[in-house]
Design a protein that fits this description.
- The protein is α+β, with helices and mostly antiparallel strands and about 150 residues long.
- Helix content is about 20%, strand content about 40%.
- The strands form two sheets. Strands 2, 3, 5, 6, 7 and 8 form a six-stranded antiparallel β-sheet that branches. Strands 1-4 form a two-stranded parallel sheet.
- Strand 7 and strand 8 form a beta hairpin.
């Protein structure tokens, strides 16, 4: 899918814009272990593949927050605004983790612009973001991302 590029002057008209899907990315055990080191969350369900085989998911799974953090990488594949001086990741709303991400699986994100609000000096957009696991019946992460663009 090609990245959607919007000029700053068009941003107010993007409510409902379907941004499509990012490319798939594989979630690796090395990535999970690095995230565990960075966050000091070494729960066996993530970092011990042998023990995790006996767990509820039949193998290790990615941390929910690791999957959530990949939204930024996916976001940059989907959308950009030209004609701005500053871009700010303003936060998240309504974050949920409906299903696990098994290590070795592939994930991608779909985005839709849900709201555009004027803020001092720019615009804030709210984007409905869904990370799905290839072949899984339920998404791994559902959230609303908030991004600000200042001219």
């Amino acid at each position: 899918m090609a990245k959607t590029l919007i000029g700053y002057e068009e941003l107010a008209t993007t409510v409902g814009l379907d941004l499509g899907y990012s490319e798939y990315r594989e979630v690796t055990q090395e990535q999970v272990n690095t995230f565990a080191d960075a966050t000091d969350d070494h729960q066996w369900i993530h970092t011990d593949p042998e023990k995790a085989k006996e767990g509820p998911f039949g193998g290790p799974i990615a941390h929910g927050y690791l999957t959530l953090s990949l939204q930024i990488a996916f976001w940059t594949e989907l959308f950009d605004v030209t004609g701005v001086k500053t871009k700010v990741n303003y936060g998240l709303e309504k974050v949920r983790f409906p299903s696990p991400v098994p290590v070795g699986s592939r994930i991608r994100m779909k985005g839709t612009i849900a709201e555009v609000t004027e803020v001092a000096g720019g615009y804030q957009i709210a984007v409905d973001q869904v990370i799905e696991v290839e072949g899984a019946p339920k998404p791994a992460v559902v959230s609303r991302g908030l991004y600000r663009f200042y001219a």
